[in-house]
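Q: Please design a sequence for this.
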């Protein structure tokens, strides 16, 4: 699988810092989302997935937006039956993220 890199201009230190902070917070968000799904807490899943859909798009990781929106829709429909597989998709995508300083110099 190809690495995921932000579409923000990584050569700009401000953007690089924003992306790094997002990735650092992403793992906490995913942990909280996993817990909410296991607890069948539709309100928490709705809030967390909504936040993730917005923030991932804002920092240039559009690939995360669609699965986060799917989770949000499931939560709003109060039906989390398939949430675990969509969550697993998010985790798989997140595991492919590379920060600008992790990519090879070109």
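A: Design:
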């Amino acid at each position: 699988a190809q690495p995921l890199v932000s579409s923000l201009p990584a050569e700009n230190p401000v953007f690089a810092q924003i992306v790094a902070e997002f990735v650092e917070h992403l793992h906490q968000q995913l942990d909280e989302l996993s817990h909410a799904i296991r607890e069948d807490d539709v309100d928490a899943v709705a809030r967390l997935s909504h936040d993730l859909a917005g923030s991932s798009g804002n920092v240039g990781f559009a690939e995360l937006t669609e699965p986060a929106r799917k989770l949000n829709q499931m939560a709003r429909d109060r039906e989390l039956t398939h949430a675990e597989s969509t969550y697993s998709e998010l985790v798989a995508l997140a595991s492919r993220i590379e920060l600008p300083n992790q990519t090879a110099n070109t």
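Q: Thanks. Anything notable?
A: Residues 59 and 84 are 25 Å apart (CA to CA). The longest helix spans residues 13-38.
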